[in-house]
Hints:
By secondary structure, this protein is α+β, with helices and mostly antiparallel strands.
Amino acid sequence: MSARPRKKDFIGPPEKLSGPYLLEAIKARSKECGACWEWHGPFTSGGVPMMRHRGERRPVRALILEWKGKPARTNRVASTSCENTACVNPEHTKELPKAKMLERSRKNTNQAARAAKISATQIRKLGKISDDAYMRIMGSTESGVSIGKDLGVDQSLVSAYRNGKRGRFRMANPFAGLLR
């Protein structure tokens, strides 16, 4: 029967994981890509590198700033100078105002193109149609899919017009007043 090692015999990093040990732990979970250290550990849903430190999950760049002697201040966030979201190189880590960080993320996500795409989808699904198109929808025996393709609208909009749920000739529900 082998003896189980006691906790005091356990050899590993110091309990506080600070100083050079912290940087070693960060570098061990990163891969050098040029001048950047790309993090291969867990991320938040927003793309922030995270690690366990003193029993809790903490942002890696915030830990690096604390190691540098610059604890986090209000309205400021830890970021990188290289704008690589996976980079955790201490030389690239810096503190930015939250407003500047939001501006940078808007620039990197191309909000204008995203808004245009959403708008185009909404118009296609919920857009208005001309009187001629309405008459074609109501008077035709074609399928909603084929009419929708011809008119450039979603099939669900064609169905809504045919069922009387959309348009100026929308049918009123006789029970609408009773539901209040």
